[in-house]
Design a protein that fits this description.
Belongs to the histidinol dehydrogenase family. The protein is an alpha/beta fold and 441 residues long. It contains 18 helices and 13 strands. Helix 6 links the parallel strand 4 and strand 5.
Length: 441
């Protein structure tokens, strides 16, 4: 008989409340220690290290140096290996994701006349090269391929490469290749884990290095990104899945339990909480879970029970809706689903969530696959300062300024005063009589 973690928030002390906020990758010390030698081996040995780690860590006995990069023939073959209805589902999802990110994309440049004759604005240009990490350890994720590839393509990044762990036969999941090609990416490396981050950062004989890497991954991947942050931009912090289902008395607890299992089934390192101020909803959820588990595959039952019966998941009963809102904001979840017939009444009180899905007809499943907004989201309280992956993550912003001759004197005089006050003589000279002499020539 499994025992779901059930916490009454009012009965917890400060340490108990803090424990509820912890994620699996909060303490990376063990991973940082083990990842270091992997990164160094890739840096010094290149492809040979990638093949060795692929065989040792991913059990990909069929991986070879010649096969590290997916061939065009493998892409073509993938379309014959994936059922037509799945290909069409991927095509449908990519359509929504592309539409959303095209709307999100900024104008290439804007300028505003701040004072007569003085213009300033922003210019957006794509990052030259990016690596997209697509995990595989506990399943295959063409959805992650879509979510990372589409905004990069919309941003017009010239060099885009996907890194994903190989299967035991040394091949890449066929649906992932279908999603990559339909999204517009045809460079895929059969490399996963910490070694993928190292390859993207340093490059190898086969792998072309990138300036930035994005995409969710295990604590091994998160640790590698942290250690290599000085070599490659690690992007937003995207680790193991996490969610909060915020439910009020207007919904049945069985529905809340159904949605609680969505992110919990990703793996034992996930985090998933049902937060409610209704004891009836909490009790209905507890009663419904055994029936929901009976309808799941054994592996996903094992994963979700590890989460909901462990320290990083379960049910939190609060004293009021206000206390629920406060807990959500403290937790800053990756996914937040508001289960209520009046979700907008809760929305205004939520400030710290990477994704907010509202109402009983917007389960996380739809957002993860085909609604349109990006499902690569910051984890481990990253939502306090980060947002979802977006077109902006693949663009660099440059400030643009243009001062005309008539506007120059006023701005120069102000700048000169401030430069002299701060003690910068060259700054002052550049907007003083010395410049005037050159401008009059």
């Amino acid at each position: 008989m499994v025992q779901v973690n059930f916490q009454v928030l009012a009965e917890l002390d400060a340490a108990g409340r803090a424990a509820l906020l912890r994620r699996s990758e909060t303490d990376l010390s063990m991973f940082l220690e083990k990842v270091g030698p992997i990164l160094e081996a890739v840096r010094t040995e290149g492809d040979a290290a990638l093949v060795r780690f692929g065989r040792e860590l991913d059990r990909a006995e069929g991986l070879t140096r010649e096969g590290l990069k997916v061939t065009e023939a493998e892409f073509d073959e993938a379309f014959g290996l994936v059922e037509p209805e799945i290909v069409e589902a991927i095509r449908f999802a990519i359509g929504n994701i592309r539409t959303f990110h095209e709307e999100q994309a900024p104008e290439p440049m804007w300028l505003k006349e701040l004072r007569p004759g003085a213009f300033a604005g922003d210019r957006f240009t794509p990052i030259r090269s990016v690596a997209l990490y697509v995990p595989r350890g506990k399943g295959s994720f063409p959805s992650v391929t879509m979510m990372t590839s589409v905004p990069a393509v919309v941003a017009k990044v010239p060099q885009i490469a996907i890194f994903t762990p190989p299967a035991p036969d040394g091949r890449v999941d066929a649906a992932t290749l279908v999603a990559a090609r339909l999204a517009g990416v045809e460079t895929v490396y059969k490399v996963g884990g910490a070694q993928a981050v190292a390859a993207a950062a340093y490059g190898t004989e086969t792998v072309v290095p990138a300036l930035k890497i994005v995409g969710p991954g295990s604590p091994w991947v998160v640790a590698a990104k942290r250690l290599l942050a000085g070599v490659i931009d690690p992007g937003l912090p995207a680790g193991p899945s996490e969610s909060i289902i915020l439910a009020d008395e207007t919904v049945h607890g069985g529905l809340a339990a159904l949605d609680l299992l969505i992110e919990a089934e990703h793996g034992p390192d996930s985090s998933a909480w049902l937060v409610t101020h209704s004891r009836q909803v909490a009790e209905e959820a507890l009663a419904a879970l055994p029936g929901h588990w009976a309808a799941m595959t054994p592996q996903r039952v094992e994963f979700s029970q590890a989460v909901l019966c462990g320290r990083a998941g379960g049910i939190v009963l609060t004293a009021s809706a206000e206390e629920s809102h406060a807990f959500v904001n403290d937790y800053a979840p990756e996914h937040l689903q508001i289960l209520s017939e009046k979700p907008f009444e809760h929305l205004g009180r939520i400030t710290e969530a990477a994704e907010v899905l509202m109402g009983p007809h917007t389960p996380i499943t739809i957002a993860n696959f085909c609604l349109g907004p990006n499902a690569v989201l910051p984890t481990s309280r990253g939502a306090r300062t980060w947002g979802p992956l977006s077109v902006h993550d693949f663009l660099r912003r440059s400030s643009v300024g243009y001062v005309t001759a008539p506007a120059y004197p006023e701005l120069a005089e102000v700048a000169k005063r401030l430069a002299e006050y701060e003690g910068f003589s060259s700054h002052a000279n550049a907007v003083g009589p010395m410049r005037d002499a050159y401008l009059k020539r």
